[in-house]
Write a structure and sequence with these properties.
By secondary structure, the chain is of the alpha/beta class. Helix content is about 30%, strand content about 20%.
Length: about 500
C-alpha cells in the first residue's frame, strides 16, 4: 500500500556544475549540512511535541559526472578516471571528514575527462540515526521509547544501500542507471563510521592513513611509549597521541597520563597524528578472523593508504626460533569469514612496494642485511585459520595442507586482513613474529611468553612503524598498485 503521509523536506535545488574541485567539495558540505541540520531540528521537535503531521525526509548530496568520450589517461595510474563514456555518480556523506580525499579525487576526475562535475541532491534519503550522530546533544532512542514509530516519521537505515555490492563487483548501479564513482555508498560509509566509534571508542576523524593491526595488548603499551618519545622530538612531525574516549597527549605535555577507561572498547585504538592524516593508527583487534574482518570492513571506508599486520604467529619450521620474523608473500586462507565475499580461489598477491618497505625496516632495526637477514626472517606463506586450538584435533589433515602449501607460519588474522585489503583496494602487508612452535614441542607457556614479549615486542613494533614512515614518503599513485584494480573500477580510490 502506498504511503499517503505528506513529505516535508528542505527546499529542492537544481544541481550545479563545477570545474574546480575545492568549490565542488564546498557545495557538498553546504548541502550535507543543510540536510542533516533539517533532520536534527525535525527530530528535536518530534521528541518535544510528539508525532508530526508529515514525514520528514532529507537526501544525501550527490556527485555526478557525464562523459561522452574515452579519457586519455596515464596508463600508470590506477584511479582518477572512469572506464568508458556514460553517467557516473556517488552519494556523499561527511564531506568535512573526507574533504582532502574528495578534493584530490574530484580534481583528478576533472583533469582526466575535461568535463565538469555536478553536485546536487541524490535519491537516497539520510537515515535520521546518521544525521544526528554529530550532534552531541541528540541520540536516537529505540522504538518503543517514543510515542510513535520512528520509521513512520523518519527514514531509517536500509540494507539495500548499506552493502558491499560495489567492491564485490556484483554490477551495482544507482536507481537512474548511473554507474558508481566511489567504492562505497554514503549510507554504507555512515554505518561504518558509527561502528568504528563503537568498536574503538575513538572518533573516525582521528584515524590516520597508515594503519597497524596487532593482536596483543603488549604492542599498545609499546606504541604509547614510542608516541610519547616522538612527541618529545620537535622534528618528528607528530602532533598528538589520541586514545580511547578522546584522551589526548600533546607535544606540550608528552608525559600526560592516558588511563584505560573502566569499560575498554572491543578494539582499543590509538592514533599518533600528523598533518593531513599522515600519522599512524594502531588497532588492537584481538584474536581471530572475525575481529580482523570487522575492523577492516569499517576502516576501509576511510580509504587509508596502507594497512599492515604486526602480530604473533606459530612458526611451522624447525629452523625457526622464537622471536624470528615472517614476511608473508602468500596466504593460505582457512579463516572462512570472507568466503561469500571473496572466494578462496582468488589469489592475494604480495605488493612489491609494501614488501620492500617491510624488509628494509627489518634490516634497519636488526642491523642485518642481505644473506645475514635470513638468520632472523623467513619469507613465505602464512596460513590463517579460524580454530585457535587446532592442535587438539587430528593432526594428519591440517599438517599435510600446511606442508603442501609450503606455509612457514600460522595465525588467525593475517590472511583476513590481506584479503580484505585486496577486496577493498587498500594496500596491505604482513610481518609476524614467531611466539611458539607447536609442531616442534615449543608451546606458548606463561614463562616463555613473558620472556619473549620483553625482548621482541618493542623491536617488532618499531619495524612496523619504520615501514609505515617509509611508505608515507611514497607517491600515492605508486603505492596504490594496479594489481588491486579489476576490469571496471570506480574512479575514486
Amino acid at each position: 500500500m502506498k504511503d499517503l503521509t505528506p513529505i516535508c523536506a528542505p527546499e529542492d535545488v537544481a544541481p550545479r556544475a563545477f570545474t574546480d574541485a575545492a568549490a565542488a567539495v564546498a557545495e557538498l558540505k553546504r548541502l550535507y549540512d543543510e540536510a542533516t541540520g533539517y533532520l536534527s531540528q525535525a527530530f528535536t521537535r518530534a521528541i518535544a511535541d510528539g508525532k508530526p503531521d508529515c514525514r520528514h525526509r532529507a537526501f544525501y548530496p550527490e556527485l555526478r559526472i557525464t562523459t561522452t568520450t574515452f579519457a586519455r589517461t596515464d596508463s600508470r595510474l590506477s584511479f582518477g578516471h572512469v572506464a568508458e563514456p556514460g553517467q557516473y555518480a556517488t552519494t556523499i556523506t561527511r564531506p568535512d571528514l573526507f574533504a582532502n580525499y574528495l578534493t584530490h579525487q574530484i580534481g583528478l576526475l576533472i583533469r582526466s575527462h575535461e568535463v565538469p562535475v555536478t553536485v546536487g541532491w541524490s535519491q537516497t534519503p539520510i537515515p535520521v540515526h546518521f544525521a544526528v550522530l554529530n550532534d552531541a546533544e541528540l541520540s536516537v532512542p529505540h522504538d518503543g521509547v517514543l510515542p510513535f514509530l520512528m520509521r513512520d516519521v523518519f527514514d531509517v537505515p536500509d540494507l539495500e544501500t548499506t552493502n558491499d555490492d560495489i567492491v564485490n563487483g556484483v554490477g551495482f548501479t544507482y536507481e537512474d542507471g548511473a554507474y558508481p564513482l566511489a567504492p562505497f555508498t554514503a549510507q554504507r560509509v555512515d554505518y561504518s563510521l558509527a561502528r568504528l566509534t563503537h568498536y574503538t571508542a575513538t572518533d573516525p576523524v582521528d584515524f590516520q592513513n597508515h594503519i597497524l593491526f596487532t593482536n596483543y595488548q603488549f604492542y599498545v603499551e609499546e606504541f604509547v611509549a614510542y608516541a610519547r618519545e616522538a612527541l618529545r622530538d620537535p622534528n618528528s612531525g607528530y602532533e598528538e597521541l589520541v586514545g580511547p574516549n578522546g584522551q589526548r597527549v600533546t607535544r606540550a605535555d608528552p608525559d600526560a597520563p592516558m588511563v584505560d577507561p573502566p569499560k575498554m572498547p572491543q578494539m582499543p585504538t590509538y592514533h599518533l597524528t600528523r598533518e593531513d592524516q599522515a600519522g599512524i593508527t594502531l588497532v588492537n583487534i584481538g584474536v581471530g578472523p572475525s575481529n580482523a574482518k570487522t575492523a577492516t570492513d569499517h576502516i576501509a571506508v576511510l580509504r587509508p593508504h596502507v594497512w599492515l599486520m604486526v602480530g604473533h604467529c606459530a612458526g611451522l619450521r624447525n629452523s625457526q626460533s622464537l622471536g624470528d620474523f615472517v614476511l608473508a608473500h602468500a596466504y593460505l586462507r582457512e579463516d572462512h569469514v570472507l568466503d561469500d565475499d571473496l572466494p578462496i580461489w582468488v589469489p592475494i598477491p604480495p605488493l612489491a612496494e609494501v614488501q620492500v618497505a617491510l624488509e628494509d625496516a627489518v634490516e634497519q632495526v636488526s642491523e642485518l642485511e642481505g644473506y645475514e637477514l635470513k638468520r632472523i626472517m623467513r619469507t613465505g606463506t602464512v596460513a590463517t585459520i579460524d580454530n585457535r586450538n587446532w592442535e587438539l584435533r587430528e593432526q594428519a589433515g591440517p599438517v599435510q595442507r600446511l606442508s603442501q602449501s609450503r606455509a612457514v607460519a600460522l595465525d588467525m588474522e593475517s590472511a583476513t586482513i590481506a584479503a580484505n585489503g585486496f577486496r577493498f583496494r587498500v594496500p596491505y602487508g604482513t610481518l609476524l613474529c614467531v611466539s611458539d612452535k607447536p609442531l616442534h614441542g615449543e608451546l606458548k607457556l606463561p614463562g616463555m611468553a613473558s620472556a619473549f614479549y620483553r625482548t621482541q615486542v618493542n623491536r617488532h613494533l618499531l619495524i612496523g612503524i619504520k615501514a609505515m614512515e617509509s611508505l608515507r614518503e611514497m607517491p600515492l599513485a605508486r603505492l596504490h598498485s594496479r594489481k588491486l584494480r579489476s576490469f571496471e573500477e570506480t574512479a575514486f580510490l
